[in-house]
Specification:
By secondary structure, this protein is an alpha/beta fold. Helix content is 34%, strand content 20%. It starts with a strand and ends with a strand.
Length: 215
């Protein structure tokens, strides 16, 4: 089966290193015959913050409040994909508010997860899907691990994706960006492209990587 990949570029700033990494990934994935959709929060609408509780859950009947058209389109992309890839910079130890807004409005109850009665465990409606996280940061990796406790990738991979049933099969951290030379960045871009080729070739019906790969 053709791999269906959704790439979410989680920065509000255009023409960044994050975009260069994502572009390399997308090109390689498409060259590998994957069907790729892209949500770029630097050019696509960033969902507005919710003003009503109903905006945090998908409608179940015609009487329920309908979804915002952009949110409905994004949710359709998430449900369509069998592999989700998030590119984002680290800002203040986590990820930009643009990506958080996307998560808050798109990963909706009754669509990506469902609460169980009398249980803290979720019904994971995105089960069977996989994900990859690619993050840039100025912080040294040791600082991110020891001081920030890997907050950005932990919150995204565990508190969001795993809660909805998505298994994160790869986390890549490119750092430190601020002091990196052009040859180093070119190497990072090539590596992002290699990830795209790998993901395009992976099976769309099962997770091939048994354990979380972190680099």
């Amino acid at each position: 089966m053709t791999r269906r990949i959704l790439v979410v570029i989680g920065t509000p700033l255009p023409d960044t290193l994050t975009h260069a990494l994502a572009t390399a990934y997308i090109s390689a994935a498409r060259a590998g015959a994957a069907d790729v959709r892209v949500i770029d929060l630097a050019s696509d609408p960033i969902p507005a913050h919710p003003t009503h509780r109903d905006e945090l859950r998908a409608p179940r009947t015609e009487a329920d409040r309908p979804l915002d058209p952009d949110v409905a389109r994004y949710l359709d992309d998430v449900q369509w994909a069998d592999h989700l890839v998030f590119f984002h910079p680290q800002w203040w130890g986590t990820y930009p508010a643009a990506l958080k807004a996307f998560i808050d409005r798109v990963f909706l109850s009754n669509a990506t997860f469902r609460y169980r009665e009398k249980s803290a465990l979720s019904e994971r409606l995105l089960a069977g899907r996989t994900a990859r996280i690619v993050m840039t940061m100025d912080s040294p990796r040791a600082w991110n691990r020891l001081v920030y406790r890997n907050a950005a990738e932990t919150s995204l991979s565990r508190a969001t994706l795993a809660y909805c049933g998505v298994k994160t099969v790869g986390i890549t951290r490119f750092a430190p960006v601020r002091f990196s030379a052009q040859p180093t960045r070119e190497g990072w871009i090539a590596r992002a492209g290699a990830h795209g080729a790998t993901d395009a070739a992976a099976s769309s019906t099962r997770v091939r990587e048994r354990d979380l790969v972190s680099s």
